[in-house]
Amino acid sequence: MALLALGLPPDFLMRPMLAGTRGAARKKTLVCLFQRGAVDGLSMVVPFGDQGYYAGRSNIAITAPRAGAEGTALDLDGFFGLHPAMGSLTELYSRGEMAVIHAVGSPHPSRSHFDAQEFMELGTPGQKSTPDGWLNRVLQEVECTDCRGRTLADGAAHEADHTLGQVGMATASTVPALRGVAMGTATPAAMKGDHPTLAIPDLSRFGVRDGAAGSAFERLYRTEMGDAVNSAADEAFDAVDLLEHLDPSTYRPANGAVYPNGEFGRSLQQIAQLIKADVGVEVAFADIGGWDTHANQGGAQGQLSRRLGEFSGGIAGLYRDLGDRMDDVVILTMSEFGRTVRQNGTGGTDHGHANCMLALGGGVHGGRVLGDWPGLDRKQLYEGRDLAVTTDFRDVFAEIVEGHVGAERLDRIFPGHTLDRTKYRGILG
């Protein structure tokens, strides 16, 4: 129990890796990227065909596409365009491998970053008492590979079988903790819950033996508590060593992929490394901050542009690096809410309502901007100031986890939400 509390369950990691992970069957993987701080979706995917966009933005609006001109929106469909800093994604869109879902968000009116992020990660808008995150519930509900029809949600006995190595622990595909991986120092709310997951700040420093924390861990378990506990501790340490031996310093991205410098680019590169190592990752999570642009947001140039360049460059790098493995991967982006249609007095935007998401990869029916556009005339705005929500973010999540990951009990994954498949936007082909 203490090992589990520290997030280092030995059998979850050790047994399959000792057996070798290269032979594990390739899985369907969902990579979720959270833009924390509320990105301005109206500059990320510009509705240049709606004059209401320009009416409220005197010097931060992105100019409509114009042949031969630089710094203009990158035309997607004659009405919407990508921010000019996101040119690395235009080829994926034109190949039909990226879709945009616009005017998507939460039905809850909160403009609090903390609350809105929690509602989105729990998958229960307006309800903070939900005990686990929606991605953890996905892991609980999706059938565990090699378990012959049983699911991790079938009860504690089945989970105990995994812990004791009694059900197919010969391959990485049956390691619960490796099914869900978050890049960061702490487990995000979306990944918290009964199903074990790993939070990895950096593969090159992943482990517990270094420093005071590692020494304390070893002292705790290398006692006279009994051979079983000591053996478990040894296996835990050996498992960490094996994961460390993935050695990011020797990893070389494939297909000429280049990741942006910084934490976000490193996180995506290490997600690619984990996926290609066939250790059984089904859900991967990373986030990137810096989107709360209340002042000096900029237009085609400036702080938002730089952040969007890093964001899109990271996605393009991950996509290229994974190559044909993208047939089994969907990348989904999200942010807690959008920003106001009108710019404020300091050249920025304030907390808004609806936003946009991107979906890329295997099975995505892309080359389209999806959703019902509500319009940007004042009478069409939410509370007279924001883009209105016409797609509930839970319907986007549900469509992806049902169609790509294979989840069936959506009522368990999104409790309290009446799912209506006619509201799906056709993200997957």
Helix content: 25-40%
Report the span from N to C terminus.
44 Å
Q: Give me the secondary-structure category.
A: alpha/beta
Largest sheet features: 9 strands, mixed
Question: Mean pLDDT across all residues, rounded?
Answer: 84
Helix and strand element order: HHEHEHEEHEHHHHEEHHHEHEEEEHH
How many DSSP-defined strands?
A: 12
Number of helices: 15
Round the Cα radius of gyration to an integer and report it.
22 Å
Number of domains: 1
Oligomer: single chain
The gross shape turns out to be globular
Which regions have little confidence, pLDDT < 50, spanning 5+ residues?
A: 1-24, 145-174, 208-217, 219-226, 228-239
DSSP strand content: 5-15%
Question: How is the topology of this model organized?
Answer:
Elements: H1 2-5, H2 10-19, E1 29-35, H3 41-44, E2 45-46, H4 51-55, E3 74-75, E4 81-82, H5 90-94, E5 98-105, H6 113-122, H7 134-141, H8 156-163, H9 176-179, E6 180-183, E7 198-200, H10 211-221, H11 227-244, H12 263-276, E8 283-288, H13 303-322, E9 329-334, E10 355-361, E11 368-370, E12 391-392, H14 393-405, H15 410-413
Parallel strand pairs: 1-8, 1-9, 5-11, 5-12, 6-7, 6-8
Antiparallel strand pairs: 2-4, 3-4, 5-10, 9-10
